[in-house]
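To whoever is on call:

I kicked off a structure prediction for a single chain this morning and the downstream step that reads the tokens threw a length-mismatch warning. I double-checked the sequence; it's 406 residues and nothing unusual in it as far as I can see. Pasting both halves so you can look.
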Amino acid sequence: MEKYVDYFASAMQNIRMWIKRKYEKTIKDLVKQFPVVVLTGARQVGKTALVQRVFPRFSYVSLDVPALSEQAEHSPHDFLASYKEPLIIDEVQYAPSLFRHLKGIVDKRKTPGRFVLTGSQNFSLMQGVLESLAGRCAVLTMLNLSFRELKETLRNADPDAYFFKGGFPELYEKPQIKPQFWYAAYLATYLERDVRNISNVGNLRDFDRFLRATAIRTGQILSYSELARDVGIAPNTAKKWISVLQASGQIVLIEPYHRNLGKRLIKSPKLYMCDTGLAAFLMGFEKLEEVMRHPVAGALWETHVVMQVVRHYFSQGRQLPLWYWRTVHGAEVDLLIEKGGRFVAIEAKATENPDEKALKGIQALQKFYGHQSLISGYVASRAPHAYPISGTVKAVPGSLIDQYIA
């Protein structure tokens, strides 16, 4: 892993440039159409850097400063009068009363591009949006760097290094920081500043154990009862805390695909950590080699592949047309993209040379729904280059799977 750290340190010292995000075009388009645009997402995914980069002429204020958040909360009129429009308000969730005041301002003049709001606590942020700004704003959810975004800036970026290190931008902006130290600080900040403010989380120590138990289950079908039993909490508490992880951008749930025939299919969602670097840290791994020797390697690779696809759709501001498919008899496809009743099927395999054995799930899908149901299939692997496995299925580099589905 040291050689990857050295590589990124050397590269970023010589190439001090912006890593272009796929969200840039989407948020520009939204600002042209809506008076308020809300950019939400987990901490440290690059929200502030994005809006300041894309809208350099906008005024900017961060409510992460206690004095400013207090003024915005208790004297919203005076607060907004202090800044020229268009205005970026960062960490807006710290002043929930501001949403109602923004509603009155926007209702008087619905000119597009007046306010861009960002926030990392999606729970309180979205409550304010739904109660006060519904119908007046667009919401864009941001995830951290995809490998494709990184590679378009650092041409020689290593997919294995990214797989273990994760996609948080600061790890590449400051490559001298060791990932395990960065993630320890990130976790402490997340627990103290996001989770502590949620009413249904009473014990941070229990929640920390819950988060680690969730990471171990990435790429698996979610069982609330099993998760609750292992952590020592009630199943209803596990459900609430899973919702917290979803709302704060730490996990994504992918639902099973079914038509009317779907009574024969598994109906529980699959759980994925949004970042494989954070997941590896929570599992206790310190080196890539440790991951690849461990039985969890396949599930973590599947997480990596699925999240490249999720990032692709999120960056376009689109709903996820994503499912997994599994029958009660165990036939399974890791990811389906549905297009007009037909599918793009993706299997994730942590191998460099997948062959026809990797097609078992896709072949079962075709048998179940008919051969014409498959538009195309991909085995997203560690192969350095794409090559055909069958007439409709290719082995492709899993870190760049979004390039093939696009």
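Update from on-call: the warning came from a stale cache, not from the record. Cleared it. Sanity check on the structure: The mean pLDDT is 90.
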